[in-house]
Every structure is written in structure tokens, then in C-alpha cells.
């Protein structure tokens, strides 16, 4: 684990900002100028200015997107305003006094606040410091208390009656024209007001679960912090628990009552303030800082990318603006798109627009200037300009190249670095080595002709350079007509021209090339070559060749962009492409939909650099990764549990609200969306849900998954949301401060939740893990009832999602065991009788006199009791295996005769052929680790009792051990079987319902066809041609029904087989656990007997050896039983698949025969033996 810590610095509000400076404010739509004094509050929440009439205007710093000075700031155009500032005088030096503050809730709807400073060199400091505070990561991810502090400076709208009542309760003025002095509305008064406005009953519920008194002791508070606020996965050596002095410091910091503080107590109010403090941030603050290694090759990173960056609205008739390039760069975007087209005479200035649409045009030069000004304001890492170049003019391409060189200057990378030549097999530089650089992505030409021409008959020969080779591969692309370009998925992408010499000389590490195949790319091995894929093609490649796509993205880069038919500028989900390792997943930044929200939320981490290091499995060349897998060897899956307790200030309206929770990650991650019920009353100030926790089990790759929480009104209207990467979430109680649609932090809206992230444990090993993590669980309370034992625990969240049917042969064989255990409970036997019984019997008296000192409270296994036949023949002394079989083996090591099939290789491995289990090969070893924690008392063998010491043959009696039959009768094992039976019945009903619905649907179709045919006959119409057409329709519907039934029943068979294998594994794990517990106890009992009877010289060590052999034989029986269950499941599956076509044909014939008996397949009357299960289920 990386022990290096990264810390976020809070925003620094300098003294001159608080004191203020004099400015003159002007606006573009007015000729008035207003002298103002501009200031910032001491905590940096608001910039505000006061005019001469003492009127104050507030601007929320969180909404500030940019500050501009000098030539980049806006300048007035009206002569009157220009005259006020002496702009037209040559020596006015007005550029040193200009300041523009850009604010907006998203990247499109912006407001510009324009100022002129009264002194020179003032604006530079104001612009830099305001921007630093606006983009401070600690401020945007602050704790709940910081956002509540913000309200003191600017009150919020809320329910009028509730506000007035809360003001009165806090002893504050509430009248319409009442005013409050700053010294009256203190922080303490505000907290009192807030407590009355938004009571928190759920906090008291949590408090009372740890303390029944009005205050909580330091010990109980420590217990609360360790149990609820600490990640259970943390290593205590690297991340030690809180010390007592740290606990005391928390109480001193948050407990409002000094008397409680002095006594080391904390009240419910103090607990609430702690839960709103900086220590309970839901996000790991380290992850927000620049914490990732930035020295890997660029293809090893996800890069924040924009599509058609210039557009502010739709793709067909939207407005283009250079401002969008500034906003994207300020938000951390590192890859921008420029659609370049030839300018018109007389200026012939290259333009940027969306070709063959009605979008407006902007000058290429203006865009380059905007990029140069904003490229490295919020991130110093390289910017990639993706040119879609349609300028087929040498002169205008030269203009474009000249603008790039002169405006970008040294920031433009024109030559490869000496350390990284453009050679096959050579990786390209890292982001840190290209800091402050701008890279051009443009088709590189051969400098002989434009590439957008038909393929000529003469091939270029003897051309060794890479540019010519790439040019040849792309010359076969045919031109599309204008309408096809507008309506196709690719749009105008791929139709651009190759650069002439001027532009081509600027291209180096990002050379676009038409994708041929993965084999072709692998052979060429050029990491500087990049291919672009429209989203539909990318999806097809992932679905068919995901592993090859991942390998491709380890070596070189790919860019994904939206299909051209998204005229509304909507976005596709970027997650599937990130799962495949695609670096540049370009989105429409003007549309703040869910994909864009996910993109913004993830790239907020790693210091907002615009680069995120891909997971190890997406970078390693020695390992292949399949995004569709259900298990990753080198990664421990996670389980996330979240409980939504309450919300605060979710809306300024009186409405019902609800919360939706989901996990976004790999295809194999949980797909279910959980939703709370709507709040019981129209109350958005403090709704309480407090429902059952939502559990997302087995998140395969936590580093690639995110948690999304959305709050809606009852009518479905979006209110707020939050998206957090799973590996950045801290476990515990948290107030999650919510975000707007454009991912801006909202001041008031928040959710109070409990989140727990832990390692995923398969259901079969839940008991083992419970025993390992809590070995003293069984000894804490001796009065604990059997139902509370760890052996009984089965997590309701770890049960399989699907089940098998009761027709499983193995299940039928064990069902008889269940019935036997239920109908014929084992009768108790007196201790006096047991003392005279043979070796397999155990004595309760011995157990009472000498119990095992470490015996747990788990349920004891059923004691071995003799059957009536055995009582009638006490002279028959045999092992428990002999008692359970008709013929006893002569040696304990011999295989039982009831096992017909030999033990093959798979029987020695406790893991059957199950796709769902990860790590079940440890099943045979793990019970041993848990045995000491849940041992069961087994008295000494009867053969070793003192009363038997006089018998000559007593020492020769082999020691007894638990049999497989006894283990299968244990109530914990029966509980697993009953649970599996219940699940199988539910699955059977589910598939039966699906089959009935399908058959009913098809029957209705045939019925409708029959009705139409009858009507035509009555009307006298319908000739031979109509009859043949109708017959063809019936046959077509019939074939469709056959295909759907075949698919449904095949799916059922596959699911049942899979679950039978899973259930067999669960049974194996449970039997091994019970056997290990019993075997451990037997060994301890024998050792205790050895200590007792060595005095008489009647105990010999061969008994211990015999016991071990018999125990090993029992374990082999258990494994053999599991192997038989798997083989029977496989055999049954194959038999059903063979009989499936006949069953489908029978079902279709029944359905068709009711309406069109002449079209029934005669072959359907032939039954396939043993294959009538589905027909019986669905057809009755």
C-alpha cells in the first residue's frame, strides 16, 4: 500500500482582498459606469462590491470560471464609456487596469463582470488570487460545516413559516422589517437557528445505539469511531487506530458544552457537529490532490477530451464560440477538437465550423488565441489539439501553421524529443516530460499532394518514411456526398485532407491513421499512431474483440467521438470505453447530461490535471484483461453497502423527494438501481427515509467503478446529484454535499448516509471469514442462544441471485435426508445406557464432567446414537461408517462401498466447474483456521473409559469419528439445503411464468390470424393466393416461436446447471467446515483421554493414527459426494439439451394445433424419452 500522503491546502484569502480596492464597473449593454469598492469575505466564499449608495452585490466564488486581464479582458465599445477610461489616448496604458470576471453555472450560460481598476498592477493580483480560490480542490470538496458557514454571509430561501418559527426559537428577530446586527447573528446563534429549522432525529437514533444516557463517554465514542468511522480493510500498522489524546481532541473541538468537555463526554449535538466536520469527509482527500505518477507514457492515461469544442448548442444549427475553448481548458480538458474549413475571399482566413450544417463560423485565429490564453491556467500538463482539417488550400494551411507557431510560441511542440524518436517499438513521452506543451493531431502528408483525392493507379514506391506509409493506407477512402455526411454516424470525420508541408511539420507524437486491424497495428508497433472511432464502431469492437482492444490501448492511443446523428449534442456513456482503456473519450461539453457529469466527476481527481493513470490491468503487457470477465486474478472485489438516512435542504419548494443509487463500472458489476420511497410528506428541508441498506455485491474492479447518487422530486425532476469513484470513498457516517447538473457544489443540499466498503466474500466462505475476523465471538456471552452462533450466520446479501429446480437428482437424494431429520429426530440416550454402548456411542455424562475449555457456543453436531437394531445386537462393534452402511470396510482407509464411481482428479479439488466462485480451492483449508473458534465438545470414546480397562480387547477398538451421514443431518447443513430448495422453487416459477407468457403471446397471435382468415371466408373473399400468404405468415410465426422457446429453455438449462454447481460448492464448504470442527474436537478429546489414561497404561498412540485415517476417509467421502453432485448435474444438463428440440416442437404443436391443425408437425408426436420436463411445466 502506498504510504505517501498528499494534502490539500485550504484557500488563502489575502488581507488586501478582505480590505478591498476601488474599481469602476461597466457593462456592455449600458453607457453608465459605477464606482465600486470590491472585497472578498474572510473565508473566501463571496466576492462582493459596494457602490456609492451602499448597495451590495454578491458573486459566489464557486460559480467563477475565469478571470481575465489585459488584452484578454473585455473592452468597452461605446464611445462614451471608452472616453471615461481614456481608451483612445495612446499613453493611457489602459490594458494594465482591465479586469473581467467570468461566472456561470455551466460552460455555455456565462455572465461577464467588467471592471477598471483605479491603479495599475492591481488587477493581476486580483485575477490570480480569485481564480486560485475558485478552483481550490479543498473548497469544492469541503465538509458540511464549511458549506453551512457560507450561509451566514448570505441567507437562503426556505419555507417561510418554518424559518419564522426557527428564528423565534433561536431568540432572533423574525418580523418582516426586522434587522439583525452582525454581533447578534453570531455563529452560535446561527447554529441554534439551524438546529430548530432542521431537526435531526436520525442523529439521536445513532447516538442512543451507543449510549442510553444524555451523554456518551469517551470509551463509547472510541467504540463508535472504530466500528463505524474506520475502514475495516486498513492495515493497523500503516494506519493505526486513533489514540486517546486524538479522541479527546475531537471531543474538545466539537462538543459545545464545556462541562461535558472537561469530563470527556460528548452530547448528541457534539456528535452532529463531528459528523459535519472535516474529519468525516466522504471523499479521501489524498485522491483529490495530484497523487498519481505522471511519468508513464501518455497512452497509459485517460485524457479529458472534448468533441466539437466550438459548439455551444446543437450540432446542426448551434452557435460557435471561441469562449468554449477557454471554458473547456479551464475545466481541465486536455484534448480539444478544431474543425477547420477553407475561408472565403477576399481575406481567405481559415474558419472553424461544423461542415454542411447551419452552425455559425468563427475565425481559426481567434480560437488559437483563446487556447493560448487559457491552456495552462488550471493544469500544466500537455494539451492536444485534434484537427479535423478540411482546408485543401496550401496558402490557408500555411496561415494556420503560422498562427500556431507565432501565437503558441515555445509552447508548441514542433520536433520530437531526442530521448523519444519516432520509431516502431519506442514509446512516446510522459505527461510530465511534456508539461506546458501543445501537441498537434493532424493527418501527416507526404508533401506531394492533398490526401482527399481518388486512389491513383501508380503506387508510391521506395518511400521509407512513416508519413508516406500512413498516407497510402488512407488514400482508398471514397468521398461521401453532402447529405450522407450529415446523416451518417461518422459525420465529416474521416473525410479531412492530409496536411501539406507547413501543417505536416507540426505533427509528431499524435499522428492519426485509419484503423486497419489489431494485427496490423501490432505488427507496426507505432505508439505515436492514433486512430479515431465513432461510438457505434467502438461499441462493436468492444463487444466482439474487447481483449484485443485493451491490448491495442496499452501500446497506442484511441479516440472515441459521438455519432453524427446526435443532433441535440447528447452524449454516450464513456464508461464502456474507459473499461477498454480508450484514452480520449470525447464528449459534447455543452450538454451537462449524465455521461458528462460522470466525466466531470472523475477528472476532478488527481489535482484536476486532466490526466488519470489507468489501472494496472489496463497497462501491464504481461497480463491480458477482459472487461466482460467475472473475476480478476490480481484484484480483490469489493462490496458496497449504503444506507440513506435523511436529506437536508434538498429544494426550496415544499415537495416530496426520493433518492436513487447505482454503481457504474464493469459489465459484470451490479446493475441494479436502488430507489428510496418518496418522503412521506412534502418536506424538502429535512426528509427522513431510514430504510434498509442498499447492497452492491462483488464490484469486480473498484478502481474503475463509481457510486452515483441522484435526488429527484416526486414528479421526476432532477434536484441534485453526486458521483464519487469507489476507491475514493471513506467508510462511515457522512454528510454528502451534493452537486448541480454541471457538477458545481451546491451550498445547502446534502444527504446523510452510512457507507461501508469492504472486501467481497463469496457466500460459501462467509462463516469462515466471520470466525477469522472475530475468533472470540463464541466466547463473549455464554448465554447466547444457538440461533446466534456464527455457524448459523448466512448473509441475506450474499445469497445467489438464481436457483435450481427440485428435479436435481442430488437434491432429491438429500431431500430425503431433510425429511428424515424433520420427521424422525434423534432420541436422547441416558448417560448410564451410553456407558455400556459400543465404540461409536458418546456419553453426555462425560461431556458434563469434563467439557472442552475452548468450546464455542455454536450448535453441537447430533450425537451418534444407536439404532434399535444396534441396541438389540450390542455385541456388534464397528465404526460409524459401518453403522451407516450395509457392509463395513475392513480397513478405515478403504473407500465406502456405497460410492459406485471412483474418485477422479476433480474429487480431490473442492472446487467444481463453477464460473461464479473465486478462490473456492481454499475451501478445504479454511475450515481448519476457523475450527478453534467454533469447536464442538465430543466426549472420550467408549473404548477408552476406565470401566472398559479390564477388557483384553478394549485397547484394540478403533476410535470413532463423525460420519458423512451425521454431517448431512446437522441442522446448519439442513438450513443451507432448505435455502437452496426455496431458491430453486422461485427460479422454477420465474421461468415457468416466462414460458407461459411466451406461449400465451404466440397463441394470441395464432388466434388473431385464425380470426382474420375466418372473416375473409365469411365475406366470400380470399383466394388461393391469400391462403398461401396466410400459411406463410403462420409458418413464420411458428418458426419465431420455436426460436424464442429454444432460447428461453436453453437459458434455463444453462442457469440451472450453473447454480447446481454453485450449490454443490456451498454444500462442500459447509460439510468441510462442520467436519473440521468435529475432527478438531475429536483430536482434543483423544489427547485429554491420553492424559487421563496414561496412568493405567491402557492408551496407545496407534489409536490417534487410526482416528486421523478415519477422518481423512470422511473428508474424501465428502469430496466424492460433491463430485457426484456435479457429475449428475452435468449429465442431467446434457440429457435435457438432447431432448430440448423435441420438447420445443411439442409445445409449438400444441399451440399451433389449437388454431391451425393442418400445420402441425407430425414428427412432433414422437416423444424423446426423459425429455418431457418442460412440456409438462409449460403445457400442463
TrEMBL record:
Record: active site: 307, 354
Positions of region (Disordered): 442-492, 774-969, 1012-1037
EC code: 3.1.4.11
GO cellular component: cytoplasm
Segments forming domain C2: 619-746
GO function terms (MF aspect): calcium ion binding; phosphatidylinositol phospholipase C activity; phosphatidylinositol-4,5-bisphosphate phospholipase C activity
Biased composition annotated in UniProt, kind: Basic and acidic residues: 778-790, 873-889
Top-level taxon of origin: Eukaryota
Composition-biased stretches (Polar residues): 951-966
Protein's name in the database: 1-phosphatidylinositol 4,5-bisphosphate phosphodiesterase
Organism (species): Seriola dumerili (Greater amberjack)
Amino acid at each position: 500500500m502506498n504510504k505517501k500522503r498528499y494534502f490539500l491546502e485550504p484557500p488563502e484569502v489575502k488581507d488586501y482582498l478582505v480590505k478591498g480596492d476601488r474599481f469602476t464597473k461597466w457593462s456592455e449593454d449600458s453607457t453608465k459606469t459605477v464606482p465600486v469598492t470590491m472585497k472578498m469575505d474572510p473565508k473566501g466564499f463571496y466576492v462582493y462590491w459596494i457602490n456609492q449608495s451602499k448597495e451590495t452585490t454578491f458573486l459566489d466564488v464557486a460559480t467563477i470560471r475565469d478571470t481575465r486581464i489585459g488584452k484578454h479582458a473585455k473592452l468597452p465599445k461605446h464611445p462614451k464609456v471608452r472616453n471615461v477610461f481614456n481608451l483612445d489616448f495612446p499613453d493611457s496604458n489602459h490594458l494594465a487596469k482591465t479586469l473581467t470576471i467570468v461566472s456561470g453555472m455551466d460552460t455555455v450560460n456565462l455572465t461577464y463582470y467588467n471592471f477598471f481598476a483605479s491603479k495599475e498592477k492591481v488587477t493581476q493580483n486580483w485575477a490570480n488570487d480569485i481564480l486560485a480560490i475558485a478552483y481550490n480542490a479543498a473548497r469544492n470538496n469541503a465538509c458540511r460545516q464549511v458549506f453551512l458557514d457560507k450561509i451566514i454571509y448570505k441567507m437562503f430561501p426556505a419555507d417561510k413559516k418554518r424559518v419564522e418559527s426557527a428564528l423565534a426559537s433561536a431568540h432572533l428577530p423574525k418580523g418582516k422589517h426586522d434587522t439583525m446586527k452582525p454581533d447578534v447573528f453570531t455563529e452560535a446563534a446561527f447554529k441554534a437557528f439551524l438546529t430548530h429549522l432542521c431537526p435531526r432525529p436520525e442523529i439521536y437514533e445513532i447516538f442512543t445505539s451507543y449510549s442510553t444516557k444524555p451523554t456518551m463517554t469517551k470509551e463509547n465514542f472510541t467504540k463508535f469511531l472504530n466500528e463505524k468511522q474506520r475502514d475495516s480493510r486498513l492495515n493497523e500498522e500503516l494506519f493505526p487506530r486513533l489514540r486517546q489524546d486524538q479522541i479527546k481532541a475531537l471531543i474538545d473541538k466539537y462538543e459545545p458544552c464545556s462541562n461535558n468537555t472537561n469530563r470527556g463526554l460528548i452530547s448528541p449535538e457534539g456528535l452532529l457537529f463531528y459528523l459535519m466536520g472535516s474529519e468525516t469527509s466522504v471523499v479521501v482527500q489524498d485522491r483529490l490532490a495530484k497523487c498519481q505518477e505522471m511519468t508513464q507514457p501518455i497512452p497509459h492515461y485517460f485524457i479529458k477530451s472534448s468533441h466539437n469544442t466550438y459548439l455551444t448548442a446543437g450540432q446542426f444549427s448551434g452557435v460557435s464560440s471561441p469562449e468554449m475553448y477557454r471554458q473547456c481548458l479551464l475545466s481541465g480538458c486536455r484534448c480539444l477538437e478544431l474543425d477547420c474549413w477553407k475561408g472565403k475571399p477576399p481575406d481567405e482566413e481559415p474558419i472553424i465550423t461544423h461542415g454542411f450544417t447551419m452552425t455559425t463560423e468563427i475565425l481559426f485565429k481567434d480560437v488559437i488565441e483563446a487556447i493560448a490564453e487559457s491552456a495552462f491556467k488550471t493544469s500544466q500538463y500537455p494539451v492536444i489539439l485534434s484537427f479535423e482539417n478540411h482546408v485543401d488550400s496550401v496558402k490557408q494551411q500555411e496561415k494556420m501553421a503560422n498562427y500556431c507557431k507565432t501565437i503558441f510560441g515555445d509552447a508548441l511542440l514542433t520536433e520530437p524529443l531526442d530521448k523519444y524518436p519516432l520509431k516502431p517499438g519506442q514509446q512516446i513521452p510522459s505527461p510530465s516530460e511534456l508539461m506546458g506543451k501543445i501537441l498537434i493531431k493532424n493527418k501527416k502528408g507526404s508533401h506531394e499532394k492533398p490526401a482527399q483525392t481518388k486512389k491513383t493507379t501508380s503506387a508510391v514506391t521506395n518511400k521509407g518514411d512513416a508519413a508516406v506509409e500512413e498516407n497510402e493506407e488512407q488514400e482508398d477512402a471514397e468521398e461521401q456526398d453532402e447529405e450522407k455526411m450529415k446523416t451518417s454516424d461518422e459525420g465529416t470525420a474521416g473525410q479531412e485532407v492530409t496536411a501539406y508541408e507547413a501543417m505536416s511539420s507540426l505533427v509528431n507524437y499524435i499522428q492519426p491513421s485509419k484503423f486497419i486491424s489489431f494485427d496490423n497495428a501490432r505488427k507496426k508497433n507505432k505508439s505515436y499512431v492514433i486512430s479515431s472511432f465513432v461510438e457505434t464502431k467502438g461499441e462493436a469492437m468492444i463487444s466482439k474483440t474487447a481483449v484485443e482492444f485493451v491490448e491495442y490501448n496499452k501500446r497506442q492511443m484511441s479516440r472515441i467521438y459521438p455519432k453524427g446523428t446526435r443532433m441535440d449534442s447528447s452524449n454516450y456513456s464513456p464508461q464502456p470505453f474507459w473499461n477498454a482503456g480508450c484514452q480520449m473519450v470525447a464528449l459534447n461539453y455543452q450538454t451537462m447530461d449524465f455521461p458528462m457529469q460522470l466525466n466531470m466527476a472523475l477528472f476532478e481527481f488527481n489535482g484536476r490535471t486532466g490526466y488519470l493513470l489507468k489501472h494496472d490491468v489496463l497497462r501491464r503487457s504481461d497480463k491480458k484483461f477482459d472487461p466482460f470477465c467475472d473475476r480478476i486474478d490480481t484484484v480483490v472485489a469489493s462490496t458496497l453497502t449504503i444506507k440513506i438516512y435523511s436529506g437536508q435542504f434538498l429544494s426550496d419548494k415544499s415537495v416530496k423527494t426520493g433518492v436513487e443509487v447505482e454503481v457504474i463500472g464493469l459489465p459484470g458489476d451490479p446493475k441494479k438501481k436502488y430507489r428510496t420511497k418518496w418522503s412521506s410528506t412534502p418536506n424538502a428541508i429535512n426528509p427522513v427515509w431510514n430504510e434498509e441498506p442498499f447492497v452492491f455485491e462483488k464490484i469486480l474492479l473498484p478502481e474503475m467503478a463509481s457510486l452515483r447518487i441522484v435526488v429527484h422530486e416526486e414528479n421526476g425532476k432532477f434536484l441534485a446529484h453526486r458521483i464519487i469513484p469507489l476507491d475514493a470513498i471513506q467508510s462511515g457516517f457522512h454528510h454528502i454535499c451534493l452537486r448541480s447538473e454541471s457538477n458545481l457544489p451546491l451550498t445547502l443540499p446534502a444527504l446523510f448516509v452510512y457507507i461501508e466498503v469492504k472486501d467481497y466474500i463469496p457466500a460459501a466462505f462467509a462463516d469462515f471469514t466471520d470466525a477469522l475476523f472475530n475468533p472470540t465471538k463464541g466466547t463473549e456471552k455464554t448465554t447466547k442462544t444457538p440461533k446466534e452462533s456464527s455457524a448459523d450466520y448466512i448473509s441475506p446479501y450474499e445469497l445467489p441471485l438464481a436457483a435450481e429446480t427440485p428435479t436435481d437428482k442430488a437434491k432429491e437424494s438429500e431431500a430425503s435426508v431433510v425429511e428424515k431429520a424433520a420427521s424422525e429426530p434423534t432420541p436422547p440416550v441416558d448417560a448410564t445406557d451410553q456407558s455400556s454402548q459400543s465404540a461409536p456411542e458418546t456419553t453426555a455424562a462425560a461431556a458434563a464432567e469434563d467439557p472442552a475449555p475452548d468450546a464455542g457456543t455454536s450448535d453441537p453436531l447430533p450425537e451418534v446414537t444407536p439404532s434399535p437394531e444396534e441396541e438389540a445386537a450390542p455385541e456388534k462393534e464397528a465404526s460409524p461408517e459401518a453403522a451407516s452402511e450395509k457392509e463395513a470396510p475392513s480397513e478405515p482407509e478403504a473407500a465406502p462401498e456405497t460410492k459406485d464411481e471412483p474418485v477422479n482428479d476433480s474429487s480431490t479439488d473442492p472446487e467444481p466447474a463453477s464460473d461464479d466462485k473465486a478462490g473456492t480451492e481454499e475451501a478445504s483449508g479454511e475450515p481448519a483456521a476457523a475450527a478453534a473458534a467454533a469447536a464442538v465438545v465430543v466426549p472420550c470414546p467408549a473404548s477408552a473409559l476406565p470401566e472398559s480397562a479390564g477388557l483384553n480387547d478394549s485397547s484394540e477398538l478403533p476410535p470413532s469419528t463423525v460420519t458423512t451421514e451425521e454431517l448431512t443431518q446437522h441442522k446448519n447443513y439442513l438450513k443451507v439445503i432448505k435455502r437452496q430448495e426455496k431458491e430453486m422453487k422461485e427460479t422454477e416459477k420465474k421461468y415457468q411464468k416466462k414460458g407461459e407468457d411466451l406461449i400465451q403471446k404466440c397463441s394470441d397471435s395464432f388466434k388473431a390470424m385464425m380470426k382474420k382468415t375466418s372473416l375473409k371466408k365469411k365475406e366470400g373473399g380470399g383466394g388461393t393466393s391469400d391462403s398461401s400468404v396466410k400459411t406463410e405468415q403462420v409458418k413464420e410465426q411458428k418458426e419465431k416461436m420455436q426460436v424464442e422457446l429454444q432460447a428461453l429453455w436453453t437459458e434455463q438449462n444453462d442457469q440451472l446447471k450453473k447454480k447446481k454447481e454453485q450449490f454443490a460448492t456451498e454444500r462442500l464448504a459447509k460439510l468441510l467446515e462442520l467436519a473440521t470442527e468435529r475432527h478438531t474436537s475429536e483430536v482434543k478429546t483423544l489427547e485429554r483421554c491420553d492424559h487421563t489414561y496414561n496412568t493405567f497404561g491402557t492408551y496407545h498412540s496407534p489409536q490417534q493414527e487410526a482416528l486421523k485415517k478415519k477422518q481423512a476417509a470422511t473428508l474424501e467421502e465428502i469430496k466424492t459426494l460433491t463430485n457426484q453432485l456435479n457429475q449428475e448435474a452435468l449429465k442431467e444438463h446434457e440429457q435435457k439439451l438432447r431432448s430440448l428440440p423435441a420438447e420445443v416442437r411439442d409445445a409449438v404443436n400444441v399451440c399451433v394445433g389449437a388454431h391451425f391443425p393442418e400445420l402441425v408437425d407430425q414428427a412432433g408426436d414422437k416423444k424423446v424419452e426423459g425429455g418431457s420436463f418442460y412440456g409438462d411445466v409449460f403445457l400442463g
